[in-house]
TrEMBL record:
Protein name: Putative thymidine phosphorylase
Family from the record: Belongs to the thymidine/pyrimidine-nucleoside phosphorylase family. Type 2 subfamily.
PROSITE patterns assigned: THYMID_PHOSPHORYLASE (PS00647)
NCBIfam families on file: ARCH_P_rylase, PRK04350.1
């Protein structure tokens, strides 16, 4: 068959982007006019995928009568070595006209957004076209009605969990604050109080840890819907990775474009968050917005705009929503990185004497506000209920039961390589740069290496002497420890120290 090639697994992880590798002398490349970065439709049995072409020279690893597929393309086709697939030009993406319309300032409808999302999920749009869409929606270019339409279209593109009309509580932090691992604590407290809180969380994209990364240190998080329901019906809550559930699946594609562009788009952030909350079947949602000079939301004005958009969009999609503005001036807790954050969570649950008090108090604030949000609650009593659940040990017991139901509890491991970073002068710590300390944790290997990250020794307001440790770099290998240390030594101002006597 002249229009087919034998398939090989390339073993190359291109995340969600299907990629096909073909030899420069391939007869199909020549006959079809395929060139590097061409979009190619690949048909195998009853499945198909649209992939981006990379052309391979005469390097010897790929023959002219075969094609190699990236991990995502291989999985999408359910391919087996030796399969022969058919290659052709895909139909043009119809939604490109709507992207152009948005770029020129037109308002888009829910049907327009649904068309763009559909083409995104079928990989009909190139990264350049997706970047054009993200750019056209950036800043304040999405009106409130468009944000509602985008949210609904994103939710409709995937599954929506149905909890039979029951009240389902949920919380979300917009991010930008290292540590701050309140979610496992809030879930344990709220579930211990008898409320339903099936929490689906994300993995890190640019941060040292996402909630799913931290939770995975202590229990399995990759559960399908059947397993999710089993855990929630047994324990009232869970903390799992949402990526296995097909909830608002276009969001991950958009995030991959948004992060490198570093756009601050209120409308897109709100649509991303609320589409996933609605898809998870949540009915009552608390949004945590840390505000600080080095957080994601850096000013009171930006926070006010974000709060207004959340409130304007939540009601039309059927969510009862409350917003909590929190202090984003410095990291929360001591650990930054999956295992270190997990240790902080456990220290708070176990009521250990040296548990990070800022993490405890923030978790209690959030859990209390979420309990107050539940129908039938007595306003203002949520915080006291949260304290009772934590101090009595009920939250710890519930958390361990949730871990057991998800597949079993594991104590966090410790990094074999640690490097202390000392203070360069005497004085009082006046601030910690969230972005720089997060960068150091990532250079140490987080979140890929679960034990890697940064352990804070000193915090804002502490008095330190020159040479006293400010923080420790934790790494899984000496090379990563040295790499992070080199960066840290070039950024000694991550901790600002007001010199002189108190």
């Amino acid at each position: 068959m002249t229009d087919t090639l034998a398939l090989l697994p390339a073993g190359i992880d291109t995340y969600r982007q299907p990629v096909v590798y073909m030899h420069e002398d391939c007869h199909i490349c020549r006959a079809e006019g395929f060139a590097a970065q061409t979009r190619v439709r690949i048909d195998l049995r009853d499945r198909w995928v649209i992939a981006t072409l990379n052309v391979v020279g005469r390097a010897g690893w790929l023959t002219a009568d075969s094609a190699a597929l990236s991990v995502s393309a291989w999985s999408a086709l359910l391919a087996r070595p030796g399969d022969r697939a058919r290659f052709s030009h895909p139909e043009p993406a119809l939604s490109t006209s709507r992207i152009r319309a948005k770029a020129y300032g037109e308002r888009l409808s829910e049907a327009d957004f649904a068309s763009i999302i559909g083409d995104t999920l079928e990989h009909r749009l190139t990264d350049l076209e997706l970047a054009a869409f993200i750019t056209a929606c950036a800043g304040e270019r999405l009106a409130d009605a468009e944000t509602v339409a985008l949210t609904r279209a994103m939710q409709a593109a995937g599954e929506t969990l149905d909890w039979g009309g029951r009240t389902v509580l949920d919380k979300h932090c917009v991010g930008g604050l290292p540590g701050n691992r309140t979610t496992p604590l809030v879930v344990a407290i709220v579930a211990a109080a008898g409320e339903l809180i099936p929490k689906t969380s994300s993995r890190a994209i640019t941060s040292p840890a996402g909630t799913a990364d931290t939770m995975e240190v202590m229990a399995p998080v990759t559960l399908d819907e059947r397993a999710l329901r089993r855990v929630v019906e047994a324990e009232g809550g869970c903390v799992i990775w949402g990526g296995a559930l097909n909830l608002s699946p276009a969001d991950d594609h958009f995030i991959q474009i948004e992060r490198p562009l570093n756009f601050d788009s209120t409308g897109q952030m709100v649509a991303s968050v609320l589409s996933k909350k609605a898809a998870a079947g949540s009915t009552h949602v608390l949004i945590d917005i840390p505000v600080g000079a080095t957080a994601k939301v850096r000013s009171a004005e930006a926070a006010d705009a974000l709060v207004a958009r959340f409130l304007q969009v939540s009601a039309p999609i059927g969510l009862r929503l409350a917003v909590h503005l929190s202090d984003g001036s410095a990291p929360v807790g001591r650990g930054i990185g999956p295992a270190l954050e997990a240790s902080d969570v456990l220290a708070v649950l176990r009521r250990e004497a040296d548990a990070p008090n800022d993490l405890r108090e923030k978790a209690l604030d959030l859990a209390g506000k979420l309990l107050d949000l539940a129908p039938g609650s007595v306003p203002g009593t949520g915080h006291a209920r949260a304290v009772e659940m934590l101090d009595s040990g009920s939250a710890e017991a519930k958390f361990l039961a949730i871990c057991s139901a998800q597949g079993g509890f594991t104590e966090p491991a410790r990094a074999p390589h640690r490097v202390e970073i000392p203070a360069q002068s005497d004085g009082t710590i006046s601030s910690i740069d969230n972005r720089v300390i997060a960068r150091i944790a990532k250079l140490a290997g987080a979140p890929r290496q679960k034990v890697a990250g940064v352990q804070l020794v000193a915090q804002v307001g502490d008095r330190v002497c020159k040479g006293q440790p400010l923080y420790e770099i934790h790494a899984a290998s000496p090379g990563e420890a040295a790499w992070a240390r080199s960066y840290a030594e070039r950024h000694a101002d991550v901790f600002l120290i007001a010199e002189g006597p108190r």
